[in-house]
Amino acid sequence: MVKAIRVHELGGPEVLKWEEVEIGEPKEGEIRVKNKAIGLNFIDVHFRKGVYKAATIPFTPGMEAVGVVTSLGPGLTGMKFGDLVAYAGNPMGSYAEEQILPAEKVVPVPSTLDPVVVAAVIFKGMTTQYLVRRCFKVEPGHTILVHAAAGVVGSLLCQWAIALGATVIGTVSTKEKADQAKDDGCHLVIMYKEEDFVTRVNEITSGKRVDVVYDSVGKDTVQGSLACLKTRGYMVSFGHSSGMPESLPSALDAKSLFLTRPALMHYSLTREELLETAGELFAGVTSGVLRVRVNGTYPLC
Fold first, then answer.
1. Which residues, 6+ apart, have CB-to-CB distance to 293 below 8 Å?
2. Domain boundaries 140-264, corresponding CATH code
3. Confidence check: pLDDT of 71 > 70
4. Each residue of 248-287: pLDDT tens digit?
5. 81 near 72, Cβ under 8 Å?
6. Number of neighbouring beta carbons within 10 Å of residue 301
7. Location of each CATH 3.40.50.720 domain in the chain
8. Residue 60 has what DSSP assignment?
């Protein structure tokens, strides 16, 4: 038996229960991992509240972790006892002392990286990788707009896009967040509570607007985001902290815009894609191109 956080009913933080669970031994194609550090994500809150539906109730939340391999399924090769590995995305269940994982879903962690840093960045960082490298390939000369630029993904987006040669405009809500975005290298920061971001983007770009908008806010920003795009621009809607955006076909028609709602699982379908995504992330962190802020650490129990 191991201890894990379990959710028996949907609701606030009070529904999180610390309990003993039986996880068994790994089957063919699986490994057992003792977690060293577990990442926290907004998606965990969505599952706890029922915005996203868990496959079963009760369930153990959590979508990313770093741990040590303690057992291998029958016949499994390519890994060994004691390997440090990480995963992000499915299967859910990282809020636990130990867990069973599909071997094909984990990636090796460089020994030079702190497990706490990796746990804090792997889900958000791999998300950033596919957003700037594959969903829309950011290149020198592009001008991009990043909403929630001081959030974890927003911060990584700004840093990575700047390293790729783009001009980055970020939106934030407070002076403190504006300072952080500037510290990340954001070229121009808009405090959206004090000024209209559509008007400011139009002024900043002299009416040319931007090549791509990365929008994790959703309902509150989607119409303004579309207005900020140049003809044939890309709207990348990868979150909805303010609610799901509504149907937008007519808005897209106005400028032949592209709209996508990407997800990490669809950009890591193969083992090769997964390793490439994680490899680029770890290289960025190791080289210092990406700075990871660990804003807090908490005991699991």
1. 120, 152, 155
2. 3.40.50.720
3. yes
4. 667 788 899 999 999 999 999 999 999 999 999 999 999 9
5. yes
6. 8
7. 140-264
8. -
Question: What tokens appear for 276 in the block?
Answer: 């490439």
Find, among 88, 69, 89, the residue nearest to 80 by Cα: 69
The whole-angstrom separation of Cα 179 and Cα 200 is: 18
Alpha helices for the chain (secondary structure H): 42-49, 115-130, 152-163, 175-183, 197-204, 222-227, 249-253, 271-287
Residue entry with tokens 């975005």: 181
Q: What is the CATH T-level fold of the domain 2-111, as seen in this structure?
A: Quinone Oxidoreductase; Chain A, domain 1 (3.90.180)
What percentage of the chain's residues is helix, strand, coil (to nearest 5)?
30, 25, 45
How far apart are alpha carbons 50 and 261 in whole angstroms? 20
Least confident of 14-23, 81-90, 247-256: 247-256
Q: How far apart are CA 60 and CA 97, in angstroms?
A: 11
